[in-house]
Every structure is written in structure tokens, then in C-alpha cells.
Amino acid sequence: MTLPGALAALLTRLASAAEPVLWDEPAPVLELTDAERARLDAGEVVWRADLNKGGSAGRSMVLVRASEDQVWDVILNPDDYVLFLPYVTASWAEPGGQSSPQDRLRWGMELTTKGVVTRYAVESRAAPSTTGRTMRWEMIPSGASPMSRATGYWMSLPWADGRTLLVYAVDVETAWWLPVMVHQTAADRGLPTTVALFGRRAEKLSVQVQEGR
């Protein structure tokens, strides 16, 4: 990256880091193309990168063979994340953070990547939604991390045949010194994988309910 390009990227990240989370703002209206609908019906994950933010932001979508309630049972139970997210090595509820988990949830999470352990504080809040359900979230590291902050939202929408469309939106603010290519690659690989893992977990629990286990 050239010096002017690096300076512009730094100024953009510093400006975005100051933006507060708009907790009460509804999630953007989701409009799918015919090609995206076909891919979703085929069981694929659809990933839309937000190129205006350097590729470290976007939305991942997947169709889940489970009800919306079952999907949200997975999202709102961070204690179980260690069971199906390979990079989550610990999670815990913050004091008073789960008094009303349907509306507001505060918890901590430990991620281990290539032997490096980083802890994060996470807060999630229900957001207005005309269809389905939406919950916005903010994640901040408690120590040194190449990620300075991440924000986004979970959204579910009813689909045909009792399936649920699960949407995971993320905007990652990285340290100024991290090369753009690095966080673009991490976003392109990691974010679609995350929504797929949540979908599989909900489907597994749905099957267990159907089988009476």
C-alpha cells in the first residue's frame, strides 16, 4: 500500500471507530437477487462484501432447516458457542448481563487463533424489525488485538417450507497497521463460515427435538 493510501485507510478507520452503535436502528431491508435465492435454496452460503469499507464488512446469509425460535435459541446461548465454534475456547455471562436475554445480552468470549488468546466483551440488543427478528451487537477486545472493534447484527426471516433465512452482518474495525489484504481475506473466509456453523447447530438441535431427544 502506498503512503497516501495507508494514510487514507488510517483516517477512515479512526473516523469509523468513533461512530456509536445505533442500537434502535432497524436492520437494512434485505433484497435478494434471483441468483442469490437459487444459491440459498441449493444450500450455499451467500456472502456480500461491503466494498465501501475495504472488504472487512458485509453480510453472510444461509437457509436453515429450523424454526426462527430454534435459530435464536442458538444465538442467545453463548455458553454453548464452545461446542460448535472451533475458535471460541471460553465464554461467560457478565454480571447482570442475562437478566433479559431476549432484549439485551452482555457476555465475554475468549478466542484462540494460532495459539494467541484474545478476550472480548460483547453486548447484544434487540432492534426494531418489521419482519422476522433482529439483534444488533458490539464486540470490543479487552487486550491487544488486530481488531479494534466489531459491530453488526443477526437477523432472521421466515422462509418457505418452515425454513429460516439467517443473516449475519459484520463491520470489523482493524488496527491501522494491519494490511488491507489480510483483513479482507479473513472476512471473506471467516464470516461465511460463522453463519454456516450457527445454521448447522440450529438444524442439529431441531432434529433432536423432532426425535424427542
What does this protein look like?
A hairpin with a 5-residue loop joins β7 (147-158) and β8 (164-174). Strands 1-2-8-7-6-5-4-3 form an 8-stranded antiparallel sheet, sandwiched between helices. It has one domain (3-210): 2-Layer Sandwich (Alpha-D-Glucose-1,6-Bisphosphate, Chain A, domain 4). The protein has helices at 3-17, 34-41, 68-75, 81-84, 180-210, and strands spanning 46-49, 57-64, 88-93, 104-113, 116-127, 133-141, 147-158, 164-174. It has 5 helices and 8 strands. Helix content is 31%, strand content 34%. It has 213 residues and is an alpha+beta fold. The chain is globular.
Outline of this structure?
The protein has helices at residues 3-17, 34-41, 68-75, 81-84, 180-210; strands spanning 46-49, 57-64, 88-93, 104-113, 116-127, 133-141, 147-158, 164-174. It is an alpha+beta fold. The model is unreliable at 1-18 (pLDDT under 50).
**CATH homologous superfamily annotation:** START domain
Number of separate domains: 1
Number of strands: 8
Q: What's the story with the biggest beta sheet?
A: 8 strands, antiparallel
Proportion in helices? 25-40%
Globally, the shape reads globular
Beta-strand proportion: 25-35%
CATH topology description: Alpha-D-Glucose-1,6-Bisphosphate, Chain A, domain 4
